[in-house]
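Progress against Task 2.4 (sequence-to-structure conversion) is shown through the following example record, which the project officer requested during the mid-term review.
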Amino acid sequence: DLASLADNSPTFAALRMVPLVADVKADLVIGNNNAITQVAFDAAGKGDLGDLSAGGISLPIGKFHLGGTYDDASSELKIDDLTIDGDHTRAKAAGSFLVKREGSVVHGIAGTLEARALYFDSPALFAQPVTFSGLVISAAYDRDAKSLNLSRVALTGGQLAFDMSGTVDFSGDGTPGLALKASIAQLPVRELVKYWPLRAAPGARDWIDRSVPTGIIGPLKFVTNAAPGVLDKGILPEDALSLTFPFGNVTASYIKGMTPITEARGTGTLTGDTFDGTVPTANIGMLPLTNGTIHIPNLHLVAAPGYIHGHVEGGMPEILTLINEDPSTIRNASASIRQKWAAAPRSMSISPYRCCEICRSNNSSSA
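Structure tokens generated for the chain above:
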């Protein structure tokens, strides 16, 4: 019982997150100095992987098999087979690692693990069952420096292609420091939502899932530069995070009850506590939208206010229909105003401020 080892020795504290029960057997080769020179191990069992406490995320593992070898002369640890097979979690993996040690003291480990045919069905992790075709992790952990260097993390599945590298610093007392660079290749918005973990930026994920039914996004470029402990703070410094992405052919419901924006293209930038977006072109119903901008500062606030600007051109009947939609601030425009502007030239340009001026000049109570 791996988890029970954590109750008996602080050395195995990390195994508290691995509540697995396994049968283990090993073949040992003893050298002339009575030291173990080679080990061939084989383990099989079942259980859970993750946090079983309230609110934690755990993955039930129907059964697993782990087989490999360790050679003392080369300090090489080989994972010949890691197979997880269950109704909720499945994967096959293999890898090779070099162990850095002096005598019985381990100072670090470095190597590559490759996995394929990964399957997860966990309502606490993903909104629906997901399958990844491949995962590659090349990393080195330095126990003395308390740092993890990620040479490459590559994850593929469906139209998802994720790549990351960088360093994780565990030297502080709080959350680890992150100096990472990552990218996600261009893909449909719905495909991104499919593979987006539920607990990663849940507010942004929920809004996109609810409000953006179609569109293309990416490539997404992600950079973090957060010192240890920074992620514990309520406000993320502007230079701690940078996320940029283009998007195209997007349909979005920006306000409930309003005509959705369609065929939108532009770019988005998230830096720490601020989001900025540009929308050079889009449509709102029959009306073309140009020079759109979005600015949302103070993202740490609940219901943070945002500032949206844009330029709309079209016939007055279409414009009045748009601004009369609930919950627009200009509502229930009078029939006389609609009739007066029904023959207005279709090239007319109008902004919300000018709409108010028009209504005010005609003594409309809606102004």
